[in-house]
Specification:
Layout lengths: L2 H7 L5 E3 L2 E5 L2 H13 L5 E8 L1 H4 L1 E10 L4 E10 L4 E3 L9 H11 L2 E3 L47 E6 L11 E7 L2 E8 L7 H5 L4 H9 L6 H16 L5 H31 L2 H22 L8 E2 L2 E2 L5 H25 L3 H7 L7 H7 L3 H5 L7 H4 L20 H23 L16 E9 L2 E10 L2 E8 L1 H5 L3 H4 L8 H8 L3 H4 L2
Parallel strand pairs: 2-5, 6-7
Antiparallel strand pairs: 1-2, 3-4, 4-5, 8-9, 9-10, 11-12, 13-14, 14-15
Length: about 525
C-alpha cells in the first residue's frame, strides 16, 4: 500500500514530517485500522509504545509505528485512552506481532488491551505488587515496593510420558539470566516458553528529565554488544527532532563504527554457534581469539572494548588519524580473512553440518507473523534491512546488498553471517576514508517534539522513539531487536531435541539486557 493509497483510505494521514507520516485514530477504530494497513497494505509493525499524557489531556497515548519500506517512510498511528479507565481493543487478536508490546504497556502503564489472547504479566515477576505501573509519571523512580506473591502461570502439557524441564534463570555458562520451560516427550520438545526481565533496570524511567547528552551513556549500555548501534539510533532521533544536518565525514565514521561492531559480533557468533553450540571446540578456541583482535582495536581507538563513546548528537566525538584508519583496515581485513578460512575448514565436517541443517527451523510465515527482524528474519526469506528501506549515515553511498536464505534453520542463519561478514568488510573499507579531513560534528539546537529513527544493528532493527520537552526527555522507547525475536523460541524449539536448544539459542544470539530495559 502506497502513501497515496493510505491517504484515500485514511484522510487524517496527510500530516507528514520529514520521513514520518503521523495520524490520530479513535481508540475503538485503532485495532481495525492497524490490522488493515498490515494485512492488506503489507506494512510491517516496527514498534508499539505508550505515553502518559494525563498532565495535558487526562489520557494515555498508544503509538504504533509501521514501515512503508518501498517509499522509505515511517507511519505512526496514535490514539488516546482514558486516564481513569485505560482500555482499548487489543491488536494482538489479529496482529500477532503486537503481543509482547501490549503486555509491556499493560505492565508499565496499566493500559489494558481488552481481548488479548495472553494477558499475563511480561515485565513484572511474582514479587511485584498488583497495580504497579512504573512508567506512569506519578511513579517515582526510587519507589520502594512491598514484596508480593502474585501467581505467574506457565503453560503445561499433560499426557502419558510428558514431563517438564526448567532451565535457568541461572545458567551453566557466563550469560545473562532467563528462565525457559520445556514440555517434553522423551527428548523431543513439545512446547518451549521463556520468562525474561530478570535484569530489568528501569532505563526508560531513568531517562525521563535528562538531556540527550545525559541520556546517551544509558542508551549505550542498554546492550553492551550494541553500544554503537543504539547510540546511533538515539542520536538520529534527536537530530531529526532538532533538524540537525550531520556532516558527511561524521556519517562515514558512524557507518564504519556500526560495521566494526557488526564484524566483531559476527566473528563471535560464527565461533560460538559451531564451537560452543556443537562442541566443535576448534572453532571456539580460534574464533574467540580472532574476535579479540577487534575488541582490542576498539580499546585502542575509543578506550573501551565495546565501540562505545564515539557517536554523539550532531556527529562523532573525534576524527580518526590516517594511522588509525590504516590500522582499522588492516585489522578488520586480516580478522575476516582468518575467520573465512576457519569456517571453510569447519564446514567440511559432515557431523557439524548435520547438527546445523534442519535444526531450529523458523518458517517465513512465522517470521512475518511474529514481526521478526534482522538476520533471523532474513535467513527465513524476509528481505528487510533498514539500511536499504530507510537509509541513514553513509549507506546510500556505499556498495552493499541484503543477504537472505530460504531454509530458516541454524545453518541458514550461519551462512548469512558468513556472507554478511564479507559485505561488512567491504562497506567498512569504503567508509573509513570517506570525506576524510572534513568536520565531524555540528551544534545541535534542541526543540520540542518527537521523532523516530532506526538502525540495522548486527542483531537486527533498532527503532528508537524520543519525545523532547524543554530540552529534556519526556519519553524514550529504544526498542531492541531482541524484544521482537525472543518470542520466536516458541516456534523454533518444538520438534527439536532438547540438546539442540543451546544451538538454536546461539543461532539467534538475543540480548537479555536489551530486552529487559
Amino acid at each position: 500500500m502506497t502513501y497515496e493509497q493510505i491517504k484515500l483510505f485514511l484522510p487524517s494521514a496527510s500530516s507528514r514530517v520529514n520521513d514520518e507520516i503521523r495520524c490520530r485514530v479513535e481508540a475503538p477504530l485503532f485495532a481495525g485500522i492497524v490490522e488493515r494497513l498490515m494485512k492488506e497494505g503489507g506494512l510491517p509493525l516496527s514498534s508499539l509504545y505508550a505515553t502518559d499524557d494525563r498532565a495535558t489531556d487526562k489520557s494515555f497515548g498508544i503509538h504504533v509505528i509501521l514501515s512503508l519500506d518501498e517509499e522509505r517512510l515511517w507511519m505512526t498511528l496514535s490514539t488516546s485512552v482514558s486516564g481513569n479507565d485505560p482500555t482499548y481493543p487489543s491488536l494482538t487478536r489479529s496482529v500477532m506481532a503486537a503481543h509482547w508490546y501490549e503486555r509491556y504497556a499493560q505492565d508499565m502503564f496499566g493500559i489494558v488491551p481488552e481481548g488479548h489472547p495472553d494477558p499475563r504479566r511480561l515485565v513484572h515477576h511474582e514479587n511485584i505488587p498488583v497495580g504497579t505501573h512504573p512508567l506512569r509519571k506519578d511513579f517515582r523512580w526510587d519507589t520502594k515496593l512491598d514484596h508480593a506473591q502474585v501467581p505467574y502461570p506457565l503453560h503445561h502439557v499433560e499426557g502419558e510420558g510428558i514431563y517438564e524441564i526448567p532451565v535457568g534463570p541461572i545458567h551453566a555458562g557466563i550469560i545473562e539470566p532467563g528462565h525457559f520451560r520445556f514440555n517434553v516427550a522423551g527428548e523431543r520438545i513439545i512446547t518451549l516458553e521463556g520468562k525474561l526481565f530478570f535484569t530489568h533496570k528501569g532505563v526508560e524511567k531513568l531517562l525521563e528529565g535528562k538531556t540527550p547528552l545525559e541520556a546517551l551513556p544509558f542508551i549505550e549500555r542498554l546492550s553492551g554488544d550494541m553500544a554503537a548501534s543504539h547510540a546511533l539510533a538515539f542520536c538520529q532521533a534527536i537530530e531529526k527532532i532538532s533538524e540537525t544536518v550531520v556532516p558527511p565525514r561524521a556519517k562515514a565514521i558512524r557507518t564504519a563504527l556500526c560495521e566494526l561492531e557488526r564484524i566483531t559480533m559476527h566473528l563471535h557468533d560464527l565461533a560460538n554457534i559451531t564451537g560452543m553450540g556443537t562442541g566443535y571446540t576448534l572453532m571456539a578456541a580460534n574464533g574467540f581469539r580472532i574476535k579479540e583482535r577487534l575488541v582490542r582495536l576498539s580499546q585502542t581507538l575509543l578506550g573501551n572494548r565495546f565501540w562505545r563513546g564515539a557517536i554523539v548528537p550532531g556527529g562523532v566525538s573525534r576524527d580518526w588519524t590516517s594511522g588509525e584508519c590504516a590500522l582499522i583496515k588492516t585489522t578488520a581485513t586480516e580478522a575476516v580473512k582468518e575467520m573465512q578460512d576457519l569456517v571453510k575448514m569447519a564446514l567440511q565436517s559432515d557431523g557439524l553440518r548435520e547438527r546445523l541443517e534442519t535444526t531450529g527451523i523458523l518458517t517465513r510465515e512465522a517470521a512475518v507473523a511474529y514481526g521478526a527482524v534482522g538476520l533471523p528474519a532474513r535467513a527465513s526469506g524476509v528481505a528487510r534491512d533498514v539500511r536499504l528501506s530507510h537509509p541513514y549515515a553513509a549507506y546510500a553511498q556505499l556498495p552493499w546488498e541484503i543477504v537472505t536464505a530460504e531454509e530458516g534453520d541454524v545453518y541458514a542463519r550461519y551462512r548469512c553471517r558468513v556472507e554478511e561478514l564479507e559485505i561488512s568488510l567491504r562497506v567498512l573499507l569504503a567508509a573509513v576514508d570517506l570525506h576524510a579531513g572534513e568536520p565531524v560534528v555540528t551544534r545541535v539546537s534542541l526543540k520540542d517534539g518527537w521523532g523516530v529513527a532506526a538502525v540495522e544493528s548486527w542483531r537486527g532493527e533498532i527503532l528508537t522513539a524520543v519525545h523532547l520537552k524543554n530540552g529534556k526527555i519526556e519519553r524514550c522507547f529504544p526498542r531492541d531487536p531482541s524484544f521482537c525475536n525472543w518470542p520466536l523460541f516458541g516456534e523454533i524449539g518444538p520438534g527439536n531435541i532438547v540438546p539442540d536448544f543451546p544451538l538454536c539459542n546461539k543461532s539467534l544470539n538475543l540480548s537479555y539486557s536489551g530486552t529487559d530495559m
